[in-house]
Amino acid sequence: MIFSLHGYMTYMLWMAPALLLAMWAQWKVRGTYAAASQVPARLSGAAAARHILDSAGLQNVSIEPIAGEMTDHYDPSAKVLRLSEGVYGSRSAAAVGIAAHEAGHALQDAKQYAPLVIRNLAVPAANFGSGIGMLLLFIGAGMAMKGIAAGTPLIWLGILGFGCVAAFQLINLPVEFDASNRAKQLLVSHGIVGNQEMVYVNGVLNAAAWTYVAATLQSVLTVLYYVMQFTGGNRNG
To answer: What are the domain boundaries of the chain?
Structure first.
């Protein structure tokens, strides 16, 4: 049975590549972020983002500080770029790199970058899938074990929920990669960082990219695992 101890161990072995990659990526992010935080920059994260946005004619996009660490994000619905406390006022290579990345998302939004538009449309489905996918699987599997026919559709609805999350992650990859590429180009073209600082910026953004790859791999493997389980690919799970 999938929810047995054996099933859990099988699942963990199946997911091991994604979990190991995620652990390595988080370690890499923290290491590169710590190193880049010690490298001074001529502007703070907020000032760098403001300069990039204003240069693109996006004076309507506001910048706000937000509590937490690595909580930086761009809110396309409110047209607000939110930077964590360690990025907003910090004048470091790490801060301007992260701020420029988020500003890159604002530029994508302004230019109606297709993958971003699709990603934003997919957010409700991804949120629904992540919130209810496992619940539907659990209920459906329990019903199927008791011979209740309605359990099978619930199982596949649960798998569909996980599929929505995986689809979102796949769409998100080009969005994040493009934002990082924009950030690197903008920081150089606007003279915000020099070649020496750019080495550290690249380190932070490249490490962050691996976290998105790990999340995508984990989502895809999760879908494949459950599909195999409920199509007889692993009858002992």
So the answer is: 5-230
